[in-house]
């Protein structure tokens, strides 16, 4: 069985499930599991948000999730299981946009692997966020250009988004 | 050759169908396709800001494409504005 | 309502619940939630483990959890909700020893707050781990001495346990 | 005064009841209690290694106690070997 699972969930078919992520990355040999959940919040840059639509190029996103997982697996010597889930469609407040989990023998690797996956997904996956505001306006978020670093998917923790 | 370009994110605001089809020369490279899309946008999308295309990448279903690569023979690509997932 | 919840769960009364942790630290203004789960694994220092007994000085542990939460709350400007749960009693393989969650507006703070809490709990809480091995032997784990740093509860990420 | 000392972790191996009660002078400090417990251990716990006590801290239900502090007036303390939670 592959040590990673990648999911794109259309919100109209139900939300992402952190419990399924925890279960997938659990292993008798693993003492540490780190999980990240990204949720739609009610404000961004001072504007009141009512929801977010996620647009996604699904085949490339799934391909990229698998590449991210394989690279993190190599970095951590295969002693890691990973779950990468992202929602698409129109999400309301509190809905889960992203669920990432990493299971490893010890906690330090779990935290680092989880963070590495989250940053890579945020900075390299073909996913676009359109925020909807209470005044009926909406706007596509500023993002990371994929030009010129087609082979680099590491992302940078210092990015603003 | 005909190239079907899938549109994402802010590009959809200009083409709600989410796709445009352009005719380009056989053997054209990604950079040529970029020029063709820029010309199409200038002609058809009155509110389009050219800066968006500059920061956008072309991609197949499995990889981001470099400017010097030939356009995929199956004639299917996507144009990816700066990404903002998560 | 206080922005943190601290739980000591006797394993005989049921396990820790990561879902409850996620729910507690959720907030309409929070976009990022980081969760850590510590599980009993099947091997340690090369010996096959069959279970772990956790001994705990509960009143001091609960007092310490609250202090840790309050300090992390101060460090992150009150824009954080925290959940700290630890099990006591005899745990079997795969049982959850520890569940920590942090919810914050953005992901970087969530990861950092969660990690800070985990390290502080591991290095300063009056909790003792006795490993049971398949040959019937058992041993108390090496730990962090609380002597001489009674007022320092930060812990160090580089610690071996 | 009588002081009830709760035992945790490896200390329990020597006293399964998890508690010892020692008589110390009124006004004694934590360092005095440490000496008294060391003497008790040497007399009653044949397999006890003194190093464990050196690395252990006394505590009340709300705080780790410094060596120079008086023993709590309520006569209840705990001895905490190096901790290993999580």
Automatic annotation (TrEMBL), chains A, C:
Keywords, ordered alphabetically: Molybdenum cofactor biosynthesis
Iron-sulfur as UniProt keyword: no
Catalytic activity: 2 [molybdopterin-synthase sulfur-carrier protein]-C-terminal-Gly-aminoethanethioate + cyclic pyranopterin phosphate + H2O = molybdopterin + 2 [molybdopterin-synthase sulfur-carrier protein]-C-terminal Gly-Gly + 2 H(+)
Enzyme nomenclature, EC number: 2.8.1.12
Subunit structure: Heterotetramer of 2 MoaD subunits and 2 MoaE subunits. Also stable as homodimer. The enzyme changes between these two forms during catalysis.
Top-level taxonomic group: Bacteria
Pathway of action: Cofactor biosynthesis; molybdopterin biosynthesis
Record bears the keyword Secreted: no
Any one GO MF annotation of this record: molybdopterin synthase activity
Family: Belongs to the MoaE family.
Official protein name in the record: Molybdopterin synthase catalytic subunit
TM spans (from-to): none
Gene Ontology terms describing biological process: Mo-molybdopterin cofactor biosynthetic process
Family matches, as CDD domains: MoaE
Automatic annotation (TrEMBL), chains B, D:
Domain of life of the source: Bacteria
One Pfam entry name: ThiS
InterPro entries xrefs: Beta-grasp_dom_sf (IPR012675), Mopterin_synth/thiamin_S_b (IPR016155), ThiS/MoaD-like (IPR003749)
Name of the featured protein: Molybdopterin synthase sulfur carrier subunit
Classification of source organism: Bacteria, Pseudomonadati, Pseudomonadota, Gammaproteobacteria, Lysobacterales
């Amino acid at each position: 069985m592959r040590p990673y699972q990648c999911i794109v969930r259309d919100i109209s078919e139900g939300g992402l499930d952190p419990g399924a992520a925890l279960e997938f990355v659990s292993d008798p040999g693993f003492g540490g599991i780190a999980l990240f959940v990204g949720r739609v919040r009610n404000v961004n840059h001072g504007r009141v948000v009512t929801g977010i639509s996620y647009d996604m190029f699904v085949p490339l996103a799934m391909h990229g999730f698998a590449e991210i997982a394989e690279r993190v697996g190599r970095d951590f010597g295969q002693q890691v299981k990973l779950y990468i889930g992202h929602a698409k469609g129109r999400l309301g407040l509190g809905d889960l946009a992203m669920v990432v989990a990493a299971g490893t023998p010890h906690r330090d690797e779990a935290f680092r692997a989880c963070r590495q996956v989250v940053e890579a997904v945020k900075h390299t996956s073909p996913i676009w966020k359109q925020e909807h505001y209470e005044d009926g306006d909406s706007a596509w978020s500023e993002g990371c250009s994929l030009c010129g670093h087609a082979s680099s998917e590491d992302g940078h923790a210092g990015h603003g988004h | 050759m005909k190239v079907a370009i899938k549109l994402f994110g802010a590009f959809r605001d200009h083409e709600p169908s989410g796709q445009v089809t352009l005719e380009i020369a056989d053997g054209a490279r990604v950079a040529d396709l970029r020029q063709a899309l820029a010309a199409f946008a200038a002609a058809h999308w009155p509110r389009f800001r050219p800066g968006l295309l500059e920061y956008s990448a072309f991609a197949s279903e499995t990889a981001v494409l470099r400017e010097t690569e030939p356009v995929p023979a199956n004639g299917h690509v996507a144009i990816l504005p700066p990404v903002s997932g998560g």
